[in-house]
Amino acid sequence: MRRARIKPTSDCYMHAYNRAAGSPGFFPFGRKEKRRFVSLLHKLERYYVIDVVSYQVMSNHFHLVLHVPIEEPSPEETCRRYEKYYCGKRRLRPGSKRCKAVQKRLRDISAFMHDLQAQFSTWFNSKHDRLGSLWAGRFKNTILEPGLAVWNCVKYVTMNPVRAQIVSDPGKYRFGSWGAWCATGIHPFKDRATRHLLQALPWPLKAADAGDVRQHLQRQFSQKPPADCEEREKSKEEVRTRVYEPFTTRVDRKVRYWIDGIVIGSRDFVIATLDTFLPSTTGRERVLASTDRLDPGGTRLSAYRLRKLA
Questions:
Q1: Considering the entire predicted model, what is its pTM?
Q2: Burial class of residue 29 (count of CB atoms within 10 Å of its CB; 0-12, 13-18, 19+)
Q3: Which of 95, 115, 175, 176 is positioned for an S-S bond with 56, CB 3.0–4.6 A?
């Protein structure tokens, strides 16, 4: 049975993720496909009022860190975006029933992701002479508390090509927001994204502008992970068969909580979100994990996922 999505009633950040259908080792997205996906992302970001903070397009999946506002755009802004999106071929009258429906849609994460995945699937199928669904299932989304959770999620997403051993430096991977930022000196979503990154900076890091944020990220991506001899000695089969490792903010290893988690943030934020939107998930069904390390400001991240019942 499908679980209803959590759609907060206030501004929120989300990590959205999905994978292409197919057996392990199937990598359908090459350079052309990745460029097309990024192009569609830009197109839809100009239409919707949802901001893209970070993205990474891999060979068989993608990651997005998004900001979803609570406020709908004004009727005038809705009409402007709508008519520009359709290149003036469709018109919208402010205050009309249709306008009100579009207003609501422009801040809906499900509508945004549906358009992105559907448009990419249509293009991909036409180019590869195929039929059927491209994606393995519904996209996953994790609610992120503003600040530390967003900052760490952006770092985790950015390091995907390094963990996949495609590049040694994430700045050299051109199909992610960080790689594009390093290549051009400008974030692909400019001030909209860097504004959110400035707000996400954890204490005691300080930044006045996008350049400072970039320097902080560059220093963190250049740090070598701590040696973990015991982990290296474990066989690949052991690591593969483990369902969940402890929740950690390390970016050099795969951490399932960033993908399968429902809510990530401080313990109080996670519990408050669950009590509001999933009040029935109590007792054995709740699995709340916390990092074993405090950040310099004394905050410990927690993550929640639903236990897979037998």
A1: 0.91
A2: buried
A3: 176
